[in-house]
Amino acid sequence: MIKSSELILNPDGSVYHLNLKPENIAHDIIFVGDQDRVEKITNRFDSVEFTTQKREFKTQTGIYKGKRISVISTGIGPDNIDIVMNELDAIVNIDLVTKTPKKELTSLNIVRIGTSGSLQKDIPVDGFVMSEYAIGLDNMLRSYLIDSISEQDIEAAFIEQTNWDLRKGRPYVIKGSQKLATKIFSDKMHKGFTGTAGGFYGPQGRVLRLEIQDQNLNSKMDNFSFKGIRMTNLEMETAAIYGLGKLLGHECLSLNAIIANRATGDFSKNPYQVVEDLIDYTLEKLVK
Predict the structure, then answer these.
(1) If we measure between CA atoms, which residue out of 102, 47, 58, 99 comes closest to residue 80?
(2) Quick check: helix, strand or coil at residue 186?
(3) Tens of pLDDT along 233-280?
(4) Would you tell me how many other CB atoms lie within 10 Å of the CB of residue 58?
(5) How many C-beta neighbours within 10 Å does residue 25 have?
(6) Tell me, what DSSP letter sits at residue 137?
(7) 148 Cα distance to chain centroid
(8) Is residue 69 helix, strand or coil?
């Protein structure tokens, strides 16, 4: 039995942060960072059967073209992903009454829809990137036993090529779901190697009033190359989703709407439309 201090439930029996019970979520789930983006997706649904929100975690579950789908806002950063992934898994794979793991485990399909900036000239604004791999620069996943799931040869190459300071922790590389990639990928998309940072400013090389540990890190990441793999974009959730998903047995894939290109200095003239297009694309792929 799992202790009540480890698996915290609300008085109604729902998991603590997400405020969800097993009957509230679908097998197919879309993650978004922004809570306001949840209804941008569910407004397309034929019907919405359930809605809840606690803090930045908003969930709506409904039907789109005959398929039951949940949309959940995760908020920003790997720490929030740690909450969302563990509580979602608890909902489907732990008996919340007896607080014991179930004998038969459920594997969820989780697709993230996010915005991101491209690091490469040939991945233009208004394009889509599917994260084939993700590298976590945040160190959150190192709290778990990940050596059996991480791509250690890519990690080693990244550390060497960027002269990574290991005082910040060892970066981890995780591959996304091949099952979902086969279902969702098309010639509309670029395959990507996505960087997941633990913050928005210093961890992504932005300087306001504070000096950063490696002023050349962004350039090093732009130029990283290993067996045809190069870094395509930088954001704050994907590697954590991939790592926890793989450890817990869920299929996870991250899709990125490119609204800026750092290499060329371009920014989308209509970034909201890019996101709308990616939402439509993803929903149609999920119902097929």
Answers:
(1) 58
(2) coil
(3) 999 999 999 999 999 999 999 999 999 888 888 899 998 999 999 999
(4) 23
(5) 21
(6) -
(7) 20
(8) strand
